[in-house]
Amino acid sequence: MSARRALAVLVCALAVAGCEAHSIAPPAVTPVPVVTPSTTPSTPPSTSSSAPKPVLAPPSATITFPRAGSGQWRFPTGEGPVAGQSGRLLRYRVAVEGDIVGVNPDAFAAAVESTLGDPRGWTGGGRWRLQRVGPDGPYDFTIYLATPTTRDVLCGRPDGYTSCRNGNSVVLNVARWADGVPGHGAPLAVYRQYMVTHEVGHRLGRGHETCPVPGALAPVMQQQTLGLHGCTPNPWPYPDGSQYSGPSGEYDDPIPRGDS
């Protein structure tokens, strides 16, 4: 789909009452390889025993981006190690929209790999193995870091604020990657781990969950971007080595307007 047609569909969805809904596929992308220079427990865990531990360094540069990007992508080359000891192998690639300044694609790939390879993540249960691959090899899904309007096109539903999964597209909104969300209460590095794990969880077939008990960890499939509802931040499905989840469902939380 051309960028002009994708934006036309988006404008239609935003501006015309009764406009027919369309399932929007990801826009055509131009891979620009980046070359690196050679140089459910029975009792919810308490926060005291299961506090999430950041494994990513804090941001070292200011991230800037336009609201509407070009839809051109930078893909890191090469592939990472296979994360996980058993289960079905899914391969994924990562892409950073070219208009985003302050996010090195190789560093973004490393952050994603670190999160998805953590034993507290989706490979911890032995059902999945995950591996990052380059732009040209076979892959099962793509993790995009996108500007807010491109996020709307890729997700097929506009809100400019959240991230999403749409088919084989896992779409992370750079506005959330750069600034997190007000009131989340965890370091930005932990919130980024949550973003990756939550949206990849949808690709693995998981639906939304709610806070099981006030004061407990939030399930990673809770919509923590929109509210914690008495739970505390948590980016992992296996925070203590055992699968942790909450009741199926979601809250009727309002979505803030735009990318603020």
TrEMBL record:
Regions of compositional bias (Low complexity) in chain numbering: 27-52
Alphabetic keyword roster: Signal
Alphabetical list of Pfam families matching this protein: DUF3152 (PF11350)
Superkingdom per UniProt: Bacteria
InterPro entries named among the record's database cross-references: DUF3152 (IPR022603)
Residues covered by the DUF3152 domain: 64-229
Segments for region (Disordered): 27-58, 231-260
Coiled coil: none
Signal sequence interval, chain numbering: 1-21
Name this protein carries in UniProt: DUF3152 domain-containing protein
Organism: Amycolatopsis orientalis
